[in-house]
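Reopening this ticket.

The earlier resolution said the output was attached, but the attachment link was broken on my side. Pasting everything inline this time so it's all in one place.
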Amino acid sequence: MSLTHIQSFIAVAEEGHVGRAARRLHLTQPPLSRHILALEDELGTQLFERTPRGMRLLPAGEAFLNHARRILAEVDAAVHTVRGVARGAQGPH
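Inline output:
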């Protein structure tokens, strides 16, 4: 599972539509759809119901959304921490 797949999932969940999520992520629809399908394949379940109007989270998708948001928040926190430590280490000698 890649961070790109998680970011794609969150964007589609929040936008409710692959086209809008693709624009938000500066992607085209085909790769974004592949990200979602790969994530669903890896998890072994559908996360979205495909409707004529877009995408709607299924219960498994609802459950995964909270985890996905926490995963990205933790990655952001780790990057922030590491960069802060690196700045401190690069301070005056």
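Reporter confirms the inline version is readable. The radius of gyration is 16 Å. The chain has a mean pLDDT of 93.
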